[in-house]
């Protein structure tokens, strides 16, 4: 004889199942350890920022926050990790804004930069600095322009990555000064800086965070800063804007990112924690020691709008030098 479950029992079981599902949906976030994926090597700037943020999140949320470095492929590996694992709102990304405005133009990527990623909060800001070998004959931009015009073969300059802003800023500088600049692309700042100090390349556009220790040690000399204002760490070094070249006045920044489809309240909570923690005086001092400035409280929408404009500028510069994505 076939047995059937009484309708009351079915209703009770269904009710319990629905109740359990509802409770699961309403479970307070986070329900497990959080991952902060870093688009850079362990010990680098992004990693250091991620560890600061992890400390703040752990204190506020009472859950472990695990920092995982995913270096390589100009940050694409870290992005892929976020896209694969971030839908449950327990994986976030810490990386520079260039992952949206530069990397997709320099390299062939599978993600859609303005659709697949969302910046939740800007943590720090920094700029590029034009540095020279300590024995280079020019010590300011005018002297560089005069010297460069006498070099029929042009001037070599290094950058930390082909197709990125360190590359295009140097090419734009050549256009503005009417001198020939020849690019030498490296895989990261350390090998480029080593060749700069060794006299194998005379000039480089580098981030202040990696250049600052060598500037302080007198191993390289700064000529001008690619940033809207003078940098606190280099108060005597003029900006390109001051020198009559406002085209070289860009801001780079690190932020915490998520997939755009995670719950809005989780996005807001992560943003709130990040902004509050990074506004503490001791954290701001730490950022300046690293060669950065504190971030702003710009909204995710404002950050993305800024990145779209930066994308368009970078796209135009790469087109002007006939650059093809690698």
Automatic annotation (TrEMBL):
<keyword id="KW-0456">Lyase</keyword>
<protein>
    <submittedName>
        <fullName>Argininosuccinate lyase</fullName>
    </submittedName>
</protein>
<keyword id="KW-0732">Signal</keyword>
<dbReference type="Pfam" id="PF03401">
    <property type="entry name" value="TctC"/>
</dbReference>
<comment type="similarity">
    <text>Belongs to the UPF0065 (bug) family.</text>
</comment>
<feature type="signal peptide">
    <location>
        <begin position="1"/>
        <end position="24"/>
    </location>
</feature>
<dbReference type="InterPro" id="IPR042100">
    <property type="entry name" value="Bug_dom1"/>
</dbReference>
<dbReference type="GO" id="GO:0016829">
    <property type="term" value="F:lyase activity"/>
</dbReference>
<dbReference type="InterPro" id="IPR005064">
    <property type="entry name" value="BUG"/>
</dbReference>
